[in-house]
């Protein structure tokens, strides 16, 4: 099902939600996400933090970071487009998608809103396994039977975590002198990489779950989109054989080469998901090869594509319909980003 970007909440509405009178700072929580990968299996551990702050000072700062970040995106120049893996934007765009389509989202969400363990300094064996953090801002209007979960996400470098064994110091503002700190320090950023809205605006509405992507690379890394793309390829790759474009031997070669590249993994998964290969036949590919002078495309005696180390990327570009002709100039182009109009 396609996401209708015209009907989703926009940043001005999210900003208004962050100023809701029903907002209770006790309903703002910081979580760390620990990620491990063993034998190609990714698992997540969610840690809830207990914030030792007077008058909700830390909670208010987490809220303030979210408010400033969202407000910076409320300008009318921002456009909203459905997430497109290969799209590269040259303007203010927030990509959006159904949260349920995000790899590992449901598992992470269930752990956050389940009963996660409380983090203390003795429980994390390797601080580098901390993958990022999540800030949840939960707003309830019990009189109207509506609610909002605003889930802010940040992927960070391990360098933001200063663990024991390093020289951690703090400079006093008044004296300018330094003191050594024995505890771990975590440095929060002043921006988030994305936000998930989960809630409903009217009691009669179904619950909506929408991801707003602020930093595409970081969100893709946080949720391991590349692993999701590989699963998409594994589940749907046989469609190319069924479409009589390639045999199983060359399909295995195509998948093996493409999944060594993050971008080509993403691109091949997009081809299979969007079924862009369905427009192609050996005859049409041969015609495109001639008109666009595409080098390296070969067929065997059974009209199956032949894949090798030199042409696999070109084959994926062909299947993704990357060779286009200008309607006005007549010039032919290889495109690197396409959005349907």
Secondary-structure element order, N to C:
HEEHEEHEEEEEEEEEHHHHHHHEE
User: What does the average pLDDT come to?
Assistant: 87
**What is the count of DSSP helices, taking H or I runs of 4+ residues?**
10
Q: How many β-strand stretches?
A: 15
Major β-sheet annotation: 9 strands, mixed
Q: What fraction of residues sit in β-strands?
A: 25-35%
Oligomer: single chain
Integer-rounded radius of gyration: 24 Å
Distance between the termini: 18 Å
In which order are the strands of the major sheet placed? 3-4-13-12-7-6-1-2-5
Low confidence ranges = none
**What portion of residues is helical?**
25-40%
What is the 3D form? Answer: elongated
**Domain unit count:** 2
Structural class determined from secondary elements = alpha+beta
InterPro entries: KwaB-like (IPR032359)
Pfam families: KwaB
Characterise the protein shown here.
The chain contains 10 helices and 15 strands. The protein has 341 residues and is of the alpha+beta class. The chain folds into 2 domains: 213 residues, no CATH class; 108 residues, no CATH class. The protein has a 9-stranded mixed sheet. Strands 8-11 form a two-stranded antiparallel ribbon. A two-stranded antiparallel ribbon has the order 9-10. Helix 5 packs across helix 8 and helix 8 packs parallel to helix 10. 23% of the residues are buried. The mean pLDDT is 87. InterPro entries: KwaB-like.
Summarize the structure.
The protein is an alpha+beta fold and 341 residues long.
């Amino acid at each position: 099902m396609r996401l209708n970007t015209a009907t989703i909440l926009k940043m001005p509405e999210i900003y208004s939600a962050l100023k809701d009178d029903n907002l209770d700072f006790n309903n703002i929580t910081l979580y760390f996400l620990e990620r491990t990968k063993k034998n190609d299996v990714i698992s997540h551990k969610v840690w809830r933090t207990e914030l030792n702050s007077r008058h909700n000072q830390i909670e208010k700062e987490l809220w303030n970071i979210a408010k400033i970040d969202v407000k910076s995106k409320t300008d009318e120049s921002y456009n909203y487009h459905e997430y497109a893996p290969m799209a590269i934007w040259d303007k203010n765009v927030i990509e959006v998608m159904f949260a349920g389509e995000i790899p590992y989202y449901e598992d992470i969400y269930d752990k956050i809103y389940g009963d996660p363990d409380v983090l203390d300094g003795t429980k994390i064996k390797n601080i580098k396994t901390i993958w990022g953090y999540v800030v949840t801002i939960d707003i309830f209007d019990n009189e109207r039977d509506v609610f909002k979960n605003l889930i802010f996400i940040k992927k960070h470098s391990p360098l933001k975590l200063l663990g024991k064994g390093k020289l951690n110091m703090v400079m006093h503002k008044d004296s300018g002198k330094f003191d050594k700190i024995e505890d771990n320090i975590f440095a929060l950023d002043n921006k988030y990489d994305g936000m998930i809205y989960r809630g409903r605006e009217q009691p009669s509405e179904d619950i909506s779950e929408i991801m707003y992507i602020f930093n595409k690379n970081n969100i893709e890394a946080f949720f391991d989109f590349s692993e999701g793309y590989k699963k998409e390829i594994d589940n749907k790759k046989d469609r190319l054989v069924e479409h009589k474009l390639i045999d199983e031997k060359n399909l295995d070669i195509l998948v093996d080469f493409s999944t060594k590249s993050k971008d080509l993994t993403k691109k091949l998964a997009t081809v299979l998901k969007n079924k862009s290969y369905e427009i192609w036949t050996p005859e049409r590919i041969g015609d495109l090869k001639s008109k666009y002078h595409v080098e390296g495309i070969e067929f065997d005696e059974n009209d199956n594509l032949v894949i090798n180390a030199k042409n696999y990327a070109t084959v994926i570009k062909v299947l993704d319909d990357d060779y286009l002709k200008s309607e006005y100039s007549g010039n032919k182009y290889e495109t690197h980003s396409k959005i349907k109009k």
